[in-house]
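Hi support team,

I submitted a single chain yesterday and got back a structure, but I'm not sure I'm reading the token output correctly. Could someone confirm the output below corresponds to the sequence I sent? I've pasted both exactly as they appear in my results page.

Thanks,
R.
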Amino acid sequence: MSYQNIVTEYADHLGFITIDRPKKLNALNKATIKELHDAFKEMDLEEQVRVIIITGSGEKAFVAGADISEFADFDKSQGKELARKGQKKLFDYVATLSTPVIAAVNGFALGGGLELAMACHIRVASDNARMGLPEVSLGLIPGYGGTQRLPQLVGKGKALEMITTGGMIGADDAFSHGLVNHVVAQEELISFCEAMGDKIARNSPLAIASAIKAVNANFEDSVNGFEIEIDAFGKCFGTDDFNEGTAAFLEKRKPNF
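Hi R., thanks for writing in. Yes, this is the structure output for that exact sequence:
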């Protein structure tokens, strides 16, 4: 599939998505959100892809926010529909994807960019990364899940500080508050994510998909995450991956999933 705003690549068990709108600092518009949805869907269905790594083109920005020019004249109903469709098509879609997604956060991750990174399962930031949710400076609030996912990652107090001030934090501050998993030098960002992806890819894809589902259940209203875990744990026993994994362990060899 060909794209206008993103670039996709494959290498062994890894799929790479690069948001490629450098003149707009990789800002998200409707077309880019749709292309990202399509690319994630395509890679999730590709059996060889065990991990997806997403980043932004260049060294200045992962995603510098949403493309404000697209919604500057929206009314209330249009704004509500913008958030609803965007969350369903991309942000919630990524968060519940069965293939683990690593966000390689290079440079600015602001507004929708930070919301996209937070929807990913793992975040690695370059040491020059700057993150924030500046929507209140536009008379808005985060609309792509930012008010929900940021408190889950950094706690209520820090989340409200970031949202109400609209300020940015650096990579080290983001790491200290649990917003990102690792901070590495800019030139090492992709290779670090590739190494992590290779480590993940050695494990059972079926078990990983089940683990993602179980962890996500803890953050869903009216859902008993423990019951989801018990059910998913039991289903693992009926898979070829379980048979291969246990056989490899007993035979003192590496599993071939």
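A quick pointer for reading it: The chain has two domains: 6-201, 205-250. Let us know if anything else looks off.

Best,
Support desk
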